[in-house]
Design brief:
It is a single chain. This protein has one domain: Alpha-Beta Barrel (Aconitase, domain 4). The chain contains eight helices and seven strands. It has a seven-stranded mixed β-sheet with strand order 4-3-2-1-5-6-7. Helix 7 crosses helix 8. The radius of gyration is 15 Å and the shape is globular.
Length: 167
């Protein structure tokens, strides 16, 4: 499950209100929710991002409330992966549960620039900055977590397991 795209870089402490502002929490349609993604940090983000693009951020990404809307908005607007120096734990778990690829790698954050092209190979924990040629390492997922993300989230993973179609 390789992901590649352009880097959109943000700093430390990007909270869930910046990812999806509170006034949009009543939206039930994921596509509509995605249209407001990162509006609190970059008003035009959702209209500029291309499917597969990668958010790179500093420490404590996804802090704030435990709303599942935040990772869902990122995934729904086309974000292929989020690479951060560190994540708020509840955001990280919510991202896994909806099948959004999230990896921790401080070096990738420090050595990547906005608009760089990046390739992520999560099964190996490899993050490549295609613009600079640098390669970074993140811890690969344990098999269970990898299965959940590959299936597209926890619900599809459980359905697949119940039907005996394990990945």
């Amino acid at each position: 499950m390789e992901v590649s795209g352009r880097v959109w870089k943000f700093g430390d402490n990007v909270d869930t209100d910046l990812i999806i502002p509170g006034q949009y929490l009543t939206i039930q349609d994921p596509i509509e929710l995605g249209k407001h993604c990162m509006e609190g940090a970059d008003r035009d983000f959702a209209s500029k991002i291309k499917p597969g693009d990668i958010v790179v951020a500093g420490h404590n990404f996804g802090c704030g409330s435990s709303r599942e809307h935040a990772p869902l908005a990122l995934k729904s607007c086309g974000v292929g992966a989020v690479i951060a120096a560190s994540f708020a734990r509840i955001f990280f778990r919510n991202a896994i549960n909806i099948g959004l690829l999230v990896l921790e790698c401080e070096e990738a954050y420090r050595r990547t620039n906005p608009q760089d092209e990046m390739l992520v190979q999560p099964e190996f924990g490899v993050i490549k900055n295609l613009t600079t040629g640098e390669e970074f390492r993140a811890a690969p997922y344990p098999p269970l977590v990898a299965g959940i993300v590959q299936a597209g989230g926890l619900v599809p993973y459980v359905r697949m397991r119940l039907q005996g179609q394990e990945k």
